[in-house]
């Protein structure tokens, strides 16, 4: 109970809960819409999804400042690739949150002279760029982790070279693809924060891909992806050691 209280006391924790609720409603609505007699339930889910989405915008109002701080921190990363990817990703997040704030101003009726579709598309573009750059960083970290696992495996094989039955990935997996997937699995298994970050970014990018018409999905896939991403985000908020660190 104490852990849950600490989690919900954080703005990010509450946002993740709201986000998980929003995408759960989207997923359930997609699953129930084709079924007869579920019209009232679908309508209630749609209203709840809309209300939660509006509530989340309040939590995101201060995220511009957090994104600027994250940009300042990423500039000091020692490794060139993460520094470049994260800095550009965070700059795009700054612009995305600015667009999101403008859309919020329009939605609450403070002004009517804002082109909603224009700013929504602009926000989707910058959100997409931010996630794409984050995924490039994830792929770079995965490649480093795979090299590390391969090097450690080679050392073990060398020390056991006198044993003709010594373990070898090449012996167990004769095909290149199988060997690659096995190495990828072991690399991510040894680095849970990297796995969580990669899964989160892959799930998140489905939404802007659909909005921009790059890869069309249905609400069920987007809802499932958003739910998985929200759970991954909740884990990193509840357990900060599971957040991928910037080197």
From TrEMBL:
Keyword Transmembrane helix: yes
Subcellular location: Peroxisome membrane
Pfam families according to UniProt: PEX11 (PF05648)
Coiled-coil region: none
Gene Ontology molecular function, alphabetical: protein homodimerization activity
GO cellular component, one term: peroxisomal membrane
Keywords (A to Z) from UniProt: Membrane, Peroxisome, Peroxisome biogenesis, Transmembrane, Transmembrane helix
Alphabetical list of InterPro entries matching this protein: PEX11
Biological process, per Gene Ontology: brown fat cell differentiation; peroxisome fission; regulation of peroxisome size; signal transduction
Residue spans crossing the bilayer: 220-239
Predominant localisation class: membrane
Entry protein name: Peroxisomal biosis factor 11 alpha
Organism encoding this protein: Nomascus leucogenys (Northern white-cheeked gibbon)
Organism lineage string: Eukaryota, Metazoa, Chordata, Craniata, Vertebrata
